[in-house]
Write a structure and sequence with these properties.
Number of strands: 13
Strand order of the largest sheet: 3-4-10-7-9-8
Order of helices and strands: HHEEHEEEEEHEEHEHEEHEHHHHH
Helix content: 40-55%
Shape: elongated
Number of helices: 12
Oligomer: single chain
Length: 407
């Protein structure tokens, strides 16, 4: 029989508690519940945002991306490409040339990112599902077409249905600039707009997809490539294929999975989540100070009970544990309500989208949420530590009371 816990439970549920102690205990319980609920909800929103970022970029990013560690581009040949294709787990290898160029349409112009891709590019990317106007094809009847982002379309007023006006790309040539003939210092190639995609503003406002051969001629890259995009075979682990490719290519090349291609953005989300957790932990600590006050008042109220227990042979440890259990009961019940309410709110948000993003241009209508077991575990640990911090002083004060003065 756990005597300290039984006495603590008796104190907690006793109807004869002084009114002010009962009120402070209830305030402490409510504070812990609200703080816990808010912490679970906010952490779940950050988890949802992290998954949303991955979902947005999954339609644009490959399973694996090969780039050079130093420099902008690298040479490729048949033997080099065959080594990559023969790597176990590699399903599709797409060649990519990406660089900035000036784009003109009618009397408007802007700098865009030209992304030249090989014909098998759409076998591994889901950009076809993001097409909002026209088609996602780059080749048709030996004719080249470009697929532009929606932001680029708005900026230049591009109309894919207009067959009489082409896009005009300009890129500096690898020659010395001639002030007498400035236009001769630029490569200039026309191409018809074939479609418009909408993925995410970062891409929509900057990217234009063109055939690889068109990019080779415009940018004068020859057999050089800025990256290779890999689709992993079904059932194969991406990390296993990544390690195999890295071993094949050596330290001069960088092989990145989807998360590593956006490591700074995902790291920023994780750092924000950590600071939010620390901030809400301090809020929980402040809310739990009411536990300290209620226990301190309870110790004063139960001086005679403590003296009687001590005279009957109760040790200082037993008396101390009574008040530690008392604080734990307040925190546990409050945390249980908080975790339950937080889970309920997250489920309602996930099912019905109660809180809207409030942005007309957002790709999702409501805040995304995702609950993780680790958030509940760390929240529980935080509450345990905070409860010990605020309960230990009143408990030790009770254990050190004089029997003769209070009996």
């Amino acid at each position: 029989m756990n005597v300290p816990f039984l006495i603590a439970k008796r104190y907690f549920f006793s109807r004869k508690k002084r009114n002010i102690i009962s009120i402070i205990s209830n305030i402490a319980m409510i504070g812990v519940a609200v703080g816990t609920m808010a912490l679970i909800i906010v952490l779940s929103v950050f988890n949802g945002l992290e998954d949303l970022i991955r979902a947005i970029y999954s339609s644009f990013d490959p399973d694996l991306k090969i780039s050079v560690v130093e420099g902008k581009s690298f040479e490729t040949d048949t033997e080099f490409m065959n080594r990559i294709r023969r790597t176990p787990g590699v399903a599709v290898v797409s060649e990519v040339i990406e660089d900035n160029a000036l784009l003109r349409y009618n009397d408007r112009q802007m700098v865009v990112k030209v992304k030249g891709v090989s014909e098998n590019f759409f076998q591994q990317n889901k950009i076809d599902s993001a097409i909002v106007e026209g088609n996602f094809e780059l080749y048709r009847n030996d004719e080249f077409f470009a697929v532009v982002g929606r932001g680029v379309q708005y900026q230049l007023s591009i109309r894919p249905s207009n067959q009489f006006v082409s896009l005009q790309f300009l890129y500096p040539r690898n020659t010395k600039f001639n002030p007498l003939n400035p236009e001769g210092s630029f490569n200039s190639l026309p191409i018809r707009p074939g479609g418009v995609f909408a993925i995410e503003r970062q891409y929509d406002d900057a990217y234009v997809f063109v055939p690889l051969n068109f990019a080779e001629e415009l940018l004068e890259y020859g057999r050089r490539r800025t990256s290779l995009e890999i689709k992993v075979e079904e059932g194969e682990k991406i990390e296993t294929v990544k390690k195999a490719l890295q071993a094949t290519l050596g330290s001069a090349f960088l092989v990145q999975n989807s998360d590593e291609q956006h490591t700074s953005l995902l790291r920023a989300v994780k750092v924000e989540k950590l600071f939010v957790f620390i901030t809400f932990a301090f809020i929980l600590l402040i809310a739990s100070l009411n536990i300290f006050f209620s226990l301190s008042m309870l110790v004063i109220d139960k001086k005679k009970d403590i003296a009687i227990l001590a005279s009957m042979g109760a040790t200082a440890t037993t008396i101390r544990n009574i008040f530690l259990f008392e604080g734990a009961l307040v925190a546990f019940i409050g945390a249980t309500y908080g975790l339950s309410l937080g889970m309920l709110v997250c489920n309602l948000q996930e099912s019905f989208g109660l809180v809207s993003m409030g942005m007309a241009t957002s790709i999702v209508d409501s805040y995304p949420v995702k609950m993780q077991v680790s958030d509940f575990v760390f929240t529980g640990l935080a509450i345990v530590i905070i409860t010990l911090l605020v309960s230990i002083r009143p408990a030790y004060k009770a254990a050190s009371m004089s029997v003769t003065e209070n009996i």
